[in-house]
Amino acid sequence: MDISVLLQEEIRGSIEFYLRYTNLDQNSKGHGLTVDSTKQPGVASIASSGFALTAWVIAAERGVIARQKGVEITRGTLHTLLEAVSHHRGFFAHYLNIKTGERHKKCEYSTIDTALCLNGVITAAAYFGDNEIDDLSRQLLERVDWDFIVFEKDGKTLFRMAYNPDRGGDYVDGEPGYIYQWHMAAEQKMMYLQAASRLDPVVARALYQGFSRDWGEYKGHKLIVNPGGNLFAYLFSEAWLDTAGYLDPGGLDWFENTRQAALANRQFCLDNADIYKTYHANSWGLSAGDGPWGYEVAGSLPCLGKPYHTCTVSIYSALSCLPFIPDLTMELIQYLYQKQPKTWGEYGFFDSYNLDIDLPWYSHSLYGIDKGCSMIMIENYLTGLVWNTYTNSRTIQKALDILGFKKRLVG
């Protein structure tokens, strides 16, 4: 299959995934919620639901669904988020009952998963230009109590990572309450944008400067690293924000940082190809996702410490590198489709595969956040739709101005 057709098919399959695994029953309290994983169709993820909101934008723009249908699904989803989904001070529970919107067991109220959802809210409101969607999105954004998770530590202004009020709840070790903090460079940059106009500007700028910029280098690829070298953490904020168009207040080029991370991740796999047969020039990508022994979080050098990996190639994370290293990514896509047909299914590529165990393993599962990241990045590579819509929204333009981001000079 021609690569241009293959990219279109991957987007189409991704949209079909959201149509199939989103609760589209208008009479359901959980209308608009999307599964965390096909492994547990009754459990929704608030982050997956944010990717789904972005999927309706792509689907409407491409004519896969009628624009009015996109408006209707989005309206229903935002009503669900505002009226039915469990939250604490505007921060959503990570996992939900897909039929009711109620918190799943004792999961945490997650800052990053809330932010991923709200990125979808911002994108949908900016794209559809519908008065009801605008009003609902405004209420959702204003409900988030960002002050609740701001604190000072060692002279730095930081965000808490999550909150769980229940003893024995997810991520609770000892007394319930706040869980860890965002003190490192990772996937949370979207949070600073969303919070900028809701906080005192001085605090907002201090938060953005508060997380550490830890430089690392691997085989000539120098970049600001996340602790585990996980590819997704370089991609999630950048899926929506057009980092190719802006430099941060200190002149930092986050687009180039992600490009270097992708190249380093690939090089790490190449350097281990003589040990692990899953890895080679057209088979790379170490990130979080499905694995032979369950969900795993893998990474590469450079990182802080020794990277964890099990020879499982994260397909979605490699696909998501398309805007940053297009030629190398397209070679991988063609290889997988032609030489590894078990990686392809009804909804496009599956999550991952591993050839380094006794019986070669191919994931037959899909995760909403994974399918969404690669879908958005392929669309951005082809048209720039999500980058343009989200970055040029009133919410994000105001945030970029408050934080001091500057448009990149062309030429």
What does this structure look like?
With 411 residues, this protein is of the alpha+beta class. It has one domain (3-406): Alpha/alpha barrel (Glycosyltransferase), CATH 1.50.10.140. The chain has 14 helices and 19 strands. The protein has helices at residues 3-21, 46-62, 67-83, 111-128, 131-143, 189-196, 201-210, 236-240, 254-271, 315-319, 326-339, 368-382, 385-391, 394-403, and strands at 43-45, 87-88, 91-92, 95-97, 109-110, 150-153, 156-164, 177-182, 215-218, 221-224, 246-247, 288-289, 296-297, 313-314, 344-345, 348-349, 352-354, 361-362, 406-407. Strands 5, 6, 7 and 8 form a four-stranded antiparallel sheet that branches. It has a three-stranded antiparallel sheet with strand order 14-17-18. Strands 1-4 form a two-stranded antiparallel sheet. Helix 1 crosses helix 2 (46-62), helix 2 packs parallel to helix 4 (111-128) and helix 6 (189-196) runs antiparallel to helix 7 (201-210). The longest helix has 19 residues, at 3-21. It is globular and about 50 Å long. It starts with a helix and ends with a strand. The model has no long low-confidence stretch (mean pLDDT 98).
- Please count the helical segments: 14
The CATH topology is Glycosyltransferase
Compute the number of structural domains.
Answer: 1
The CATH class designation is Mainly Alpha
Gross CATH architecture: Alpha/alpha barrel
The beta-strand count equals 19
Principal-axis shape equals: globular
- Specify the CATH homologous superfamily: Glycoside hydrolase 144 (GH144)
| Mean pLDDT over the full residue set | 98
Termini separation comes to: 36 Å
Q: Main β-sheet: number of strands, strand sense, barrel status?
A: 4 strands, antiparallel
